[in-house]
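Practice problem: predict the structure.
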Amino acid sequence: MASASSGGGARRAGEVAPHRWLILAVIGLAQLMIVLDATVMNIALPSAQAELGFSNDSRQWIVTAYSLAFGSLLLLGGRLSDLFGRKLTFIVGLLGFALASALGGAAGNFEMLVLARALQGVFGALLAPAALSLLTTTFNDPKERGKAFGIFGAIAGAGGAIGLLLGGVLTEYLNWRWCLYVNLVFAAVALVGALMFLVPGRHADRPTLDIPGTVVVTAGLFCVVFGLSRAETRSWGSPSVWGFLVAGAVLLVLFVMIERKVAHPLLPMRIVRDRDRGGAYLAVFIAGAGMFGIFLFLTYYMQTTLGYTPVKTGLAFLPMVAGIMITAQVSTIVLLPRIGAKIPIAAGMVLAAIGLVWLTTIQLDSVYVTHVMPQLIVCGLGMGLIIAPAMNVATAGVAELDAGVASAMVNTSQQVGGSIGTALLSTLANNAATAFIAGKQPTPQLLAEAALKSYTTAFWWSAVIFAAGAIACGLLLRRGKHEPGIDSPAMLAG
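Answer:
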């Protein structure tokens, strides 16, 4: 099949991309910018709210605007990188994300900040799939691919914790606006690297854009993410919650029906039909849902219960980051080529579940070194075993013309999983706190104990999510080493 390289495009076996490790540095920097932006603003929200004067009810839209645009447009962004070339899509996404960040940093009112966050989501939906597909098409040697995905997976897994630290430092020592302006620095460095090292071009047999599928899946994902975001602050019985979730589910079913019939589907079913890829997407989904029990509620615990500053809170997550980096490398370089993804991913989920169950032992006066740090290390070791191998397997053997949309499925799985995890765990935590104080005289001590109950409840349910994930992925992923070949012409035709 004729093809043209697309920024580190598909290469024959044994042929290596020049500057491939510099390309990894460029796309890793872009990925870090995207991932940390999901948490860096959380630390800055109180300062932004005080300066711009918006209400507590409005505050959630600073986060929701980003997740809505990002989550609903990822599949479209992935297919656009297949259609127009990964280098072009990467650069457009990078520039757009930087300009949106500058707009947000300069925001003079709430509306401008929300608009900027939504635009960040739009361009992030272009940038994230392009970055992962560039990684997929740049590294084809199994050993080098393992190292590259280990590094990329470590960035993807640790970015949230790094965002908390960076947000704390910037807010405490500069200004909340620098939580957005800092993206200009990341983007400038990545842009120079992209212009120097990425190769232009696009696949010669690129398909046309599936308009019906694009409209339906974008609307479906929007409804799902919006419904879940409403569930964080409203009852699940509210029409604005279940109505959007039902509509989203119906639209996604309709999307699958459309994709099975159109000549050039937005998401070819051959991508998700492979058992190992499906298991990898499920692993990323579960990791996205479960890890919010670590980041979100442990952040609350350290700041509101232990009285940590934002910077100290961010530093407290560094042992988890170290754990992720260690096992991300070991799992992709040592384990994946020898025993496949089944055992590392399932073991990673078990480790994460153990770490979260251990976290339920925290008290109002717990000491970090003995009651928090060991658990974080265990969770980090588990997350590294999950994310890096899952990303590798999810994009292995995908034909070049599908690399963008296959990569977008990884990001979509993580984003939707995170939205579900945030909504579900927030509801369970709030219900636990409400039940704890029901019929009692509210005192500062009682309220502090109720908050602690809400955190430990979230940790228990996060552990249940990971435990269920270990069983599901253990059943779905194939046993032993598995290296799927590039999708055949017959599969491409179907």
